[in-house]
Design brief:
Radius of gyration: 34 Å
Strand order of the largest sheet: 2-3-8-5-7-6
Structural class: alpha+beta
Order of helices and strands: HHEHHEEHEHEHEEHEHEHEHHHHEEHH
Helix content: 40-55%
Strand content: 15-25%
Shape: elongated
Largest sheet: 6 strands, mixed, barrel
Number of helices: 16
Distance between the termini: 35 Å
Number of strands: 12
Length: about 425
């Protein structure tokens, strides 16, 4: 292997040590900031999606149809001149019909965990105070497998609802608003006019005000009785072993049972689109740092080419081909890129560690929040790849100029 081009490239860089160090520092800073910023942005995106996936069902089957049924009058007079207005559908008890059969089918699918839920609006009355809430009826022994609410319990357990059928679990913010304590009784009124007394057997804190202040959990049978919907549920919540398969599986479930099945991607489509735009802008900004650093490399190698034209002519007269000269100056750019990555990646890691230690308290939250950082190897690979590409591209133009030097003109003293 001919190491002469490498030796010459190193000598050229050492001959202009100050300029080479400045260019190297540009690459180091570019790699460090690229890695730290991209890891922070990717970490925040991963954290957001993880919270979105963990705190929401991967698929929700609701008691609605994606395309509502046409009224018989519309079918009869489809092409006629008669227009039928104010057709009122037949009053029915809302809910998923034969939800037990639908659950049986869903549970045959691989990697799927599911549980029925009945949600309804209710009014809590305690000590002369009234509070509107969303009342969720669920099966206590199944809910932990499809929901993360169990992780947020600060008093009691979800399974306490199985031991106490008249128990209720509420958010700590709701308990604080109504001056409620564990073990106290409260009255809940439904839109059907029925009122039941429940005992507080658990408190939870999720950090989300709308849930901690307006959500309550009760056993499914009690909510069915309170809302006058025997043997009915209006949601089937599903968790998957692979959350990324939610869209495909939701379409399969919907085609089989008929009811609208909403994947977490569909429910958050607008947010996912914003994340894509955010990522494009982020990479555009951090790449600009490396582009600026690449101009330093371009300047150094261009200066060397101008100063070493006589040396290049001598090398060519000794038998160096244009490709050999091109390789010498491309090697200089590659060497600066490699050295920049070797120092820039540890520097980026140090920045990432510093960012991870930054903590702050969100408005309205009592918990400290730390900056999320992604340590995925892809971020390191991208930072190194961008640096190498920038350094190599910066060396191409002056390297080609060096390869085109005519030794005859230079040695004769021509321009």
């Amino acid at each position: 292997m001919n190491t002469l081009p490498l030796t010459i490239a190193i000598r050229h860089l050492l001959a202009r040590r100050r300029q080479s160090i400045v260019s190297l520092l540009g690459i180091v800073l570019g790699v460090g900031f690229f890695l730290s910023i991209s890891s922070l942005m990717q970490g925040s995106e991963d954290d957001f999606i993880a919270r979105l996936i963990d705190n929401s069902p991967h698929i929700t089957v609701v008691d609605q149809y994606r395309a509502p049924h046409r009224q018989p009058a519309s079918d009869i007079f489809r092409t006629g001149a008669v227009q039928v207005l104010r057709v009122k559908p037949e009053t029915e008890t809302r809910g998923i019909l034969n939800y037990v059969r639908a659950l049986a089918y869903i549970r045959t699918l691989p990697g799927v965990t599911s549980s029925p839920v009945l949600d309804g609006q209710a009014l809590i009355s305690f000590a002369g105070q009234d509070k509107a809430i969303t009342l969720s009826g669920m099966i206590p022994t199944e809910i932990n497998a499809v929901s993360t609410i169990g992780k947020y319990m600060i008093a009691g357990r979800i399974l306490d609802l199985a031991a106490n059928p008249n128990g209720i679990i509420i958010g700590d913010q709701l308990a604080n608003d109504l001056s409620l304590q564990m073990g106290e009784n409260l009255n809940i009124s439904a839109t059907t006019g029925q009122t039941r007394t429940f005992k507080i057997v658990g408190l939870f804190h999720t950090g989300r005000v709308n849930i901690d202040d307006g959500q309550a959990f009760v056993s499914l049978k009690r909510v069915q009785a309170l809302l006058n919907r025997p043997n009915r549920v209006n949601n089937i919540i599903i968790k998957l072993a692979d959350p990324n398969a939610a869209q495909t599986l939701a379409a399969q479930i919907e085609s089989r049972i008929g009811y609208k099945s909403i994947s977490w991607q569909e429910a958050s489509q607008d947010i996912m689109s914003l994340l894509v735009i955010r990522k494009i802008l982020m990479y555009a900004v951090v790449s600009a740092v490396l582009v600026v650093a690449a101009f330093g490399i371009y300047n150094v190698i261009s200066t060397i080419v101008m100063e070493k034209q006589r040396d290049i002519a001598i090398l060519k007269s000794m038998g160096f081909r244009a490709s050999d000269v091109l390789r010498v100056f491309l090697t200089q750019g590659v060497l600066l890129g490699i050295a920049g990555c070797a120092v820039g990646l540890p520097f980026g890691c140090a920045l990432m560690i510093g960012i991870m230690r930054v903590s702050f308290k969100m408005p309205g939250s009592r918990d400290l929040t730390y900056m999320p950082v992604s340590w995925n190897w892809i971020q390191f690979a991208m930072a190194a790849a961008f640096a190498m590409v920038a350094a190599t591209l910066a060396a191409i133009i002056p390297a080609r100029k060096a390869a085109q030097v005519d030794p005859v003109d230079i040695l004769r003293g021509g321009i």
